[in-house]
Design goal:
179 residues; GMP Synthetase, Chain A, domain 3; 3-stranded antiparallel β-sheet
Length: 179
């Protein structure tokens, strides 16, 4: 999947991540306010139903396939949400493997979700607009035992922020500014 070649070993990566965990823990222990982080994204409609997004110094495009009015110039919002879950799983597996000192060579994740477009198009009352079910398949490789990897999975399931977003209600406030 990756287009870059890395000479970083799993031991090197784990050491770097342990340093991040230790530094963050020390900062939060010193002042609990250091635990609060705000993430931001901004976007603007582009041609058709495409959206130009800015996240920090990164720019990306979101579009829909022709069947949903787009040009298929980029993944759609639901695919980006699934990609967010997938990538958060990878990050969380790497961090928790380092934290629990469980050797981990590679993490591969596949995510799929079921969407009934009747909800989005308002074709039938009572049909959800969002995903009905999401399935995550994680493949871990490395020298750890199956029991250690189950322990790691339990930690990831408990601590993955985007998995939490998918699994639990999240308060959302919408403000409309019309001019």
């Amino acid at each position: 999947m990756s287009t870059t070649t890395s000479t970083t070993t799993s031991d090197d990566r784990a050491e770097v991540l342990r340093g991040v965990v230790d530094t963050t823990a020390a900062a939060v222990f010193t002042d609990a306010a250091n635990a609060a982080v705000v993430f931001r994204a901004a976007g603007r409609g582009d041609s058709g139903v495409a959206t130009d997004i800015r996240i920090g110094r990164h720019e990306l495009l979101i579009d829909e396939p022709p069947a949903l009015g787009g040009a298929d110039a980029a993944p759609n919002p639901v695919e980006f949400a699934l990609a967010g879950l997938l990538s958060c799983q990878v990050v969380t597996y790497r961090f928790w493997a380092a934290k629990l000192d469980i050797p981990l060579d590679d993490v591969q994740v596949e995510v799929e979700g079921d969407l009934d477009v009747r909800g989005f198009f308002g074709l039938e009352d009572g049909v959800r607009s969002g995903l009905g079910e999401v399935r995550v398949k994680v493949r871990l490789t490395g020298p750890a035992s199956p029991e250690q990897y189950r322990e790691l999975q339990a930690a990831v399931d408990q601590h993955c922020p985007v998995l939490d977003l998918f699994s639990n209600p999240t308060s959302v406030r919408t403000e409309l500014v019309a001019s």
